[in-house]
Amino acid sequence: MTHVPLLQVTGLNKRFGGLQATDRVDLQVAAGEIHALIGPNGAGKTTLVAQIAGQLASDSGTVHFDGSDITRMATHLRARRGLVRSFQVTRLFKSMTVLEHLALALQAAGGRTFSAWRPVRADTALFGRAEGLLARLGLADKSGWGIEQLSHGEQRALEVGMALAGSPKLVLLDEPLAGMGLQESEAMSSLIDGLRGEVAVLLIEHDVDAVFRLADTVSVLVNGHVVASGRPEDVRRDSAVVDAYLGTGQEAQ
Amino acid sequence: ADKVKIGFVSTLSGPSSALGVDIRDGFLLSVKLHGGKLGGLPAEVLVSDDQFKPEVARQLFERNVKRDHVDFMTGVVFSNIMLAALPEAIDNKTIYLSPNAAPSSMAGKDCNPLFFAVSWPNDAYHEAAGAFANQRGLKSVYLVAPNYQAGKDSLAGFKRTFKGQVIGENYTKLGQLDYAAELAEIRAAKPQVLYAFLPGGMGINFIKQFVGAGLGKETMLLLPGFSADQDVIGPVGPAMAGLFNTAHWSPDFANPANQRFVAEFQKEYKRMPTLYASQGYDTAELINAAVRDTKGKLEDQEAVRRALRSAKFDSVRGPFRFNKNQYPIQSYYVRTIGSDGKGGLVNKSFNEPILKDHGDAYVQQCMMPK
Amino acid sequence: MSGLLVFEQALNGFQLGFMLFLLAAGLTLVFGVMDMINLAHGSLYMVGAFLAAWLTRVSGSFLLGALGAVLLTALFGMLLESSLLRTLYARDHLSQVLATFALILILNDGVKMVFGNDLPLSVPAALDGPVQILPGLVYSSWRLLIIGVGLVIALLLYLLVQKTRIGALVRAGAANREMSSAMGVNVGRLFTLVFGLGAALCAVAGSLLGPLLAVQVGMGENILILAFVVVVIGGIGSIRGALIGALLVGTVDTLGRTLLQQLLRDALPPQWASAAGPALASISVYLLMVVMLVFRPQGLFPVRS
Amino acid sequence: MTAARAAAIGALLAALALPWALQAAGADFYLGVASRILIYAVAATSLNLLLGYGGMISLGHAAFFGLGAYASAILLSEGVRSAPVHLLVIAVAVGVVALAIGAVSLRTRGVYFIMITLAFAQMLFYLANSMKGYGGDEGLAVRTRVLLPGGFDLHQPATLYYCALAVLVLVMLLLHRFSGSRFGRAVQALRDDEVRAEAIGLPVFASKLVVFVVAGVLCGVAGGLSANLQGYVSPNLLHWTQSGTLLVMVILGGVGTLWGGVLGAVALLLMQELLSAHTEYHEFWIGWVLLAVVLFARHGLGGALASLAGRRTAR
Amino acid sequence: MLQVRGLCCGYGRSQVLFGMDLDIGPGEIVGLLGRNGMGKTTLVRSVMGLIRPTAGEIVFGGRPIGAMAPHRVARQGIALVPEGRQVFGNLSVLEHLTAFRRAGAGGAQPWTPERLFELFPRLAERRSHMGGQLSGGEQQMLAIARALVTNPQLLILDEATEGLAPLVREEVWKVLARVRQAGHAMLVIDKYVQRLIGVADRHVIIEKGRPVWSGTSQQLDADRGLWARYLGL
Ligand SMILES: Nc1ncnc2c1ncn2[C@@H]1O[C@H](COP(=O)(O)OP(=O)(O)OP(=O)(O)O)[C@@H](O)[C@H]1O
Ligand SMILES: Nc1ncnc2c1ncn2[C@@H]1O[C@H](COP(=O)(O)OP(=O)(O)OP(=O)(O)O)[C@@H](O)[C@H]1O
Ligand SMILES: [Mg+2]
Ligand SMILES: [Mg+2]
Questions:
Q1: pLDDT digit string (tens) for chain A, length 253 residues
Q2: Quick check: B325 pLDDT over 70?
Q3: Residue A147: closest CA among A90, A188, A103
Q4: Which of E40, E135, E224 would you mutate first to test chain A, the one with the most A CBs within 10 A?
Q5: Which in A158, D8, D103, D270 has the greatest CB count within 10 A?
Q6: Hey, are the CB atoms on D136 and B148 less than 8 Å from each other?
Q7: H-assigned helices in chain B
C-alpha cells in the first residue's frame, strides 16, 4: 500500500440543526484497499459519504483526494476524477433500460457530454463495455428491461454497477448488500472482493460477516466520530466497538 | 352590390364583455328595425369575439377582410385592440367605422380616410367634465385613471379645461379590481372633487368601494358618462343616485329617433340601453344612410366615403356632423342620476349642453385629403 | 405621509392578505398535502361567488346565500374530486396541469351558460357603510369583517392540520398513498374531504370578495396566480406559511401601489416616476417571490425535506 | 422506425404542397392559419425540449417568444430588414436573457422552478407594457417585413409559410438527433434523477442551463416569425396565459415525444379555428377534448398515435 | 388465520405468482424464503390488497379479502413493514406512532407509543424529527414501530432487518420473539435464514412464484441441500 492515502478526510463536520451528524471525522483510504466503515444506525455514515462525494457541503474540515483538495469541488467533477458513490436508497433512471444505465455511467466518466448530434448508440465500444459489466453484475439477461421490472435485489446490483462503471479510483458503497438474497450477496461480495488492488472501496455495510471477510481496514463511527480504526481482527475485539455496535450475538446464515 | 357585408369584431366574452355586447345589440337592433336590410340591401353581419386580445382581433379582421371580403368593418370597444387590428382593414382598403374607440392619435397625425369615429373623441367627456367642475366653482381635484394610453389621454383632456388645482394623480393597474389603497390616499389628500376615468368593471368596483369607504361625504365624485351608465348603475345600486357625469347622449333626449331607439331597445332586450348601445345603433344607422345615398354601389369606395362624411341621418344624439378628420362635432351634456319612477335609477340630462358643437384638439394635425 | 394613512394602508394590506390566504390555504392543502396541482382552484372561487350571488338573490339574505354557497361549493368540489381529480393523483404534475386547465375552460363557459357573464352581489346593507375605528379614521366595515373572518379561519386551519390526527393522516396520504392505505387509512375519502374543505374556503373567499369586487366569469384566473405566489413564498403545504405569505404579498402589493409610488415621485423626475412607478407596482409581488426563492428556495416554512 | 420515417416524410410532402392546394381551392386565407400553426409548432417543440427532455417545467416560456417577436418588430420599425441580422439579434438578445433567467431559476426545483420562471416572465410582461417608446400596452405594429437572402420578402404569405416550415423541419431534425446523442441521454437522465446523474459525473447544472438557453432561443425565433406573420406585437405575447397555452400544447401533443409539440400545436389551434367559428362556447368543448386526452391518452396525442402504431413511446 | 389458495397475479402483462399457496395459523410464525425476484414481495402486496389477484383466493380470519381495498384489509388486523421502509417523510416520528395507532388485538399489553419508545430508545431521541430526516436504520425501526402500534393480528415483515446495525438487529429478533409470545401471527421475509429458523415455526420456500417446499424449522435446518437448491448457498 502506498504512503500517501488516496482519500484523506480531516476534521470533517456537519450539523443538522441541533444535531452534530459528523463530528471531526478523520479518515484515510489507501489506493486499492477495501476500507469498511461501520457504526450504529444514525452514526453519520451516510452523511459522511455525502460529504465526501459532494452532495452535502461540509461545515468545516477538508477532503483531499488523489493529491488535491476537493472540499469545495462540484459533485460531478469529483466523479470525473474517479470518486464515485452508490446510494443507500436505490436511485435509478425510470426512463432507461438496464443496459442504458451502465452505458450512461460509462459515458459520463468519459466526458464529452455536450455532443448533441452523433447518436450514442453508434458508439459500439461503449456499449460493448457496458454489456461486459452487465455480465459481471449477473444482469446479462435483463439488458433491455426497464428498472420497474427489476426486483429490489436486482436494482441494488445495478445501483452498485453504476458506481463501478466508469473505472473509478475510489467507490463509496453505501450498504451494497442490503436487500440482497444470499446468492446475490455472495455474488456482490465477490464482485467487491475482485476490486481489491484495482479500485479502492469505502464500504458501509451492516452485514458484519461480509465486512470482516472483505475489509483490509475497518473504521468505526459512533455519534459522528471515528472511535476506532485498524485491522479487522483488532477492531472486532475492541470492547468499545462490541458495546456500541456489534453486540455479542452470533451472526450466521 | 347585391348585399352589404359587415364584419363586426368586439369583446363579447370575459369581464369586459358588457360593453361589446351592448354595441352589438344596438347595431343589430337597427338592422332589425330596417327589416334586415341596410340602405335597401340585405345586410349580412359577421359577428365575432376578440376575447379582449389584440392578436385575436387582428386575426379576425384578417379573416373578415381577406376571406369574407366585407364592405365595412366595425365593432371594437377598446382603443388598444382597435389600433392593433385596424391596419388589417386599412391596408386592405376596407372602411372601418368605430362605434366607440376614438383615440387622439387617429384624430390627429394618424388620421385616415378609411377611418370614421361614430362615437366621440377620446378627450371630449373629460373636457366636458373639466368645464363642469369650473362651472361649479370647484378648486381642487384628484385624478384616477388606469395606466394605459386612453387613461393618460383622458386626464390630459380634463386638465385642458379645468382651471383649478390638480392635487393628486394616480395611475392604477389596468384591470385592477381593488382600490382600497388608492382610496386611502385620496382620503388623505382631501380633494373637493374626484374625477375617475375607469371604464367597465374597474369603474363599478371603484365606485362601490368609494361609497363603502365613506368618502362620498367629503368628496364629490365626478365621472365620465360611461362610468355612470346603466351597466354601472345596476351593480352599484342606490349609491349612484345624485352623481354627475358627462356624455354626448342620454336616454331622455327628446328627439324622435332617440325615443324610438330607447323604446325598441327596451322592448327587444328588456333593459335600458347604454351609451354603447346608442353608439352601435348610430353606426348601423350611418351605414344605412351611406348605402342608401350611394344607391347600393358599394364598389365605388370614394362615393361611399363621401356619403359617410356627409352623414345624412337622424342620430339618436341629436344633430352631429363629421369634422375634417372624420371625428364628430357635437354637443356634450352633464347628466345626473335620478329615479326612473319605477324604483330604479336612470340618467337625466341638463337641458343646456356644457360644451356646444365641440370638436377635438387634434384636428389641426390631421392632413386628410378631401 | 401621516401615521393614520400608514395604518389604513396596513389594514388594506392585511385585508388583501387574508383574502389571499383563504384561497391559498385550500390551494396549499391540495397542492402541498395531496401533491396535486389544481389550476381549477380559481374556478371553484368563481363557482362559490356565483352561487353566493344567485342564492342571495333567491333567498333574499346574504347570510343564507353565503352559507349555501359554501355548502354547495364544498359538495361540488367533492364531486369533482371523486369523479375526476382522484384519477390524477397517481399521475405526474403535467397531467394534472392539463386536466385542471381543461376544467377552467369548462367551468368558465359552463358558469356562463348557467348564470350569464356576471351576477350582481352587494354588501348587505348593515355592513355597507364605513365605521369609525380610530379617532380620525373611518374604515369600510366590510373589509374589517374580511380581516376578522380570515383570522378565525387561519387559526382553525392551523390547529386542524398541525395538531390533529386527521392532519397527520392527510399528510401521510400525500407522502405515500399506497403505504397509508396499507396502514389502514381510507385515503380516498380523506382526500375527498380535504378537497371539499379547500372548495369551501374558496366559496368563503368568493362570498366575501364578490360584493367588493365583482362576480364575473374569469374572476378566478388572476387571483389564482397570486394565490400560487403566496403558496410558494410560504412553503408548499404549510398553513402557517400560507398565512404569512399572504400577509406579505398583500402588504407588498399595497405598499407598491402607494408608498413606493410616493417615494419615487419624491426621488425621481416626474416623467420617470410616472413610468417606473406603475411598472414597479405591478411587478413588486413577483420580485418578492424571486428574491424569496433565491434565498430560500423552499419557501418560508418548508414542509418537505 | 421506417413507418415513423414514412409518416414524417408524408407529412413534409403534404406541408410542401399545401400552398398550391389552398390556392387551387381558393382558400388563400388559410395559409396564414397554417403559418401560425407552424410557428406555434416550433415554439411548442422548443418547450418540449425543455420540459419533456429536460424535465424543466417552465411557466414562463412565452417570455422568449415575446422577446423574439419584439426584437424582430423593433428592428423592422427601425428599418432593419436583413434576415441574418434579425436572427443574430434574436439569438443574442434571447440568449442573454435566457442565460440570466436560467442561471437564477435553475437553482430551484419542481414547483418552485415553475413559479420562478412565471415570475420572471411576468416581470418582462410588465416591462413590455411600460416600454412607451415601442407601443407600451398598445403594442407595436410594423408595416415592413424581413427580407430573406435572395430577395424573398416575408410579406409574401407563401414565403413566410415556407420559411416557417424550414425552421420547423430544422428544429425537428435537431431534436431527433439530440434525443439519441450523448447530450440527449445525459439530459434525459438528469430529468429522471438529478442527484444520481451528478453522482456519476454528469454536469447537471451546465446541461440544464444549455438546454434552457437553446430552448429559449428557438422559441425566440418562433416569436420573430410570428411578428412577421402578424405585423404586430404586444405585451400579451409574454403573458403567463401564453406560456400556459404552450404548456397545454406540449402536454396535449405528448411530453417528451418527438412529435409532441407539433401535434399539440396543430390540434389546439385547429380546434380553436374550427370551433370558434361555430359556437360562442368553443372553450367549453375544447376543455372536454383536453380532458378526454388526459384521461384516455396517457402520453398525449403522440403517445396515442404511437400505441395505435403498436410501438412503445420514448417515455 | 390466513389462507392463500392458488394465487396468481403480476404486473401488467408479466405474471409473477403462479398458483401460490400459503397458510398461517393463529399465533404462528412463518418464514418466507426464496431468492431475489421470486415473488415474495408480490405475495405480500397482494395479501395487503395493493395488487389485485388474477386468480385464487385469500382468506383472513374466515373472510375473503382478495378483493378488498388495502385500508380495509389493514383494518381486518394485518400490518405491514414494507420492503424499503417507506416511512412518511413529512410526519414526525411521534406522529407516525400516534396517527396510525389502533386498539386492535393487542391482548393484555397493547403496543403504545411509550412502549415502542422503550423498545427503540433511538426513536425516542428523535421523536420530533421528520421521517425523511432519519438515517436508514432509524427509518427501519420506525417502520416496525409503526406497524406494531396498529396492534395487528398478523404482522408481515418484508426484509425488516435490512440496514439495521447488528445490535439493533438482535434487538428486533428479540422483539419478534416477544411479539410472538403476545400471540400475534407473523409472516417474516428475511435473508438471515439462520435467525429466521430460530424464530419461526414453519417455512415456505418460493421459487418462480410457486411454493416449492414447506416444512418446520427443524426440517429446514437439517436439509442443507434445500439451501443450496433454492437459496443459492
Ligand atoms: N437532512 C437531515 N436533516 C436532519 N437530520 C438529518 C438529516 N440527514 C440525516 N440526519 C440525521 O443525522 C444522523 C446521521 O444520519 P446518517 O444517515 O448519516 O446515518 P447512518 O450512519 O448512515 O445510519 P444508517 O446506518 O442507519 O444508515 C441521523 O440521526 C439522522 O437522523
Ligand atoms: N412494479 C413492477 N412491475 C413489473 N414487474 C415487477 C414489479 N415489481 C416486481 N416485478 C417483478 O416481479 C418479480 C418478483 O418481484 P418481487 O419483488 O416479488 O420479488 P422478491 O421475491 O420480493 O425479491 P427480493 O428478494 O429482491 O425483494 C421480479 O422478477 C420483478 O422483476
Ligand atoms: Mg446510512
Ligand atoms: Mg422483495
A1: 446 789 999 999 999 888 899 999 999 999 999 999 999 888 999 999 999 999 999 999 999 999 899 999 999 999 999 999 988 778 899 889 999 999 999 988 887 888 878 888 888 888 898 899 888 888 888 888 888 888 777 888 888 888 888 889 999 999 888 777 777 788 888 888 988 888 999 999 988 888 999 999 999 999 999 998 999 988 888 888 888 888 765 443 3
A2: yes
A3: A90
A4: E135
A5: A158
A6: yes
A7: 17-33, 54-62, 79-91, 104-107, 124-135, 149-161, 180-189, 200-212, 230-236, 256-269, 275-293, 301-310
Q: What is the pLDDT of residue A1?
A: 47
Alpha carbon C91 to chain centroid distance?
25
For C182, which of E74, E90, E95 is closest by C-beta distance?
E74
d(CA E7, CA E13): 16
Mean pLDDT over E149-168 rounds to 88
Task: Tell me the ligand closest to A207's alpha carbon.
Answer: 1
Burial class of residue B69, CB neighbours in 10 A (0-12, 13-18, 19+): exposed
The total domain count for chain E is 1
What domain range is E63 assigned to? 2-231
Is there a contact between E213 and E31 (Cβ–Cβ < 8 Å)? Answer: no
Q: Among A180, A48, A167, A31, which Cα is nearest to A108's? A: A167
Nearest residue in E to C168, CA atom: E99
Interchain contact D311–A (C-beta under 8 A): no
Report the run of H or E that residue E33 belongs to, with start and end: strand E29-33
Place of cell 389564482: C224
Cα–Cα distance for residue pair E153/C159, rounded to 1 Å: 34
pTM score, whole prediction: 0.85
| pLDDT above 90: residue D63 | yes
Cell numbers linked to D213: 438557453
Q: Give dist(CA A74, CA C130) in Å, integer.
A: 61
- pLDDT score of A252: 39
Question: Could you give the CA distance from residue C44 to residue C279 in angstroms, rounded to a whole number?
Answer: 30
d(CA D162, CA D154): 10
CATH number at residue E47: 3.40.50.300
Q: Whose CA is nearest to atom 24 of ligand 1?
A: A41
pLDDT one-digit tens code per residue, B50-93: 888 888 898 899 889 988 899 999 999 988 889 889 988 998 89
Among candidate residues B70, E26, B71, the one with its CA nearest the CA of residue D29: B70
Q: Note the pLDDT tens digit of each residue in D123-169.
A: 999 888 877 788 777 788 888 899 898 888 888 889 999 999 999 99
Evaluate: CB of A181 within 6 angstroms of ligand 2. yes
Chains that touch E (3 or more CB pairs under 8 A): A, C
Closest CA to B55 of E106, D159, D227: D227
Nearest partner of E76 among E178, E185, E182, E179, judged by Cα: E185
Grid coordinates representing D114 are: 415553475
CB pairs under 8 A between A and D: 109
Spell out the CATH class of A7-90+168-245.
Answer: alpha beta
- Partners of D137 on chain B (C-beta within 8 Å) are 80, 147-149, 174
Contact C293 D248 (CB under 8 A): no
Give the position, in ligand 1's atom list, of the atom nearest the Cα of E137.
26
- Radius of gyration from C-alpha coordinates of chain E: 17
**Yes or no, beta carbons of B87 and D232 under 8 Å apart:** yes
Q: Residue D229 is which amino acid? A: L
Chain C: give the shortest CA distance to residue D290, in Å. 6
- The reported pLDDT for the residue numbered E107 is 60
Distance C190 CA to ligand 4 centre (A): 29
Question: Measured between CB atoms, does A153 come within 8 Å of chain E?
Answer: yes
D249-298: per-residue pLDDT in tens? 999 999 888 899 999 999 999 998 888 777 778 889 999 998 998 888 87
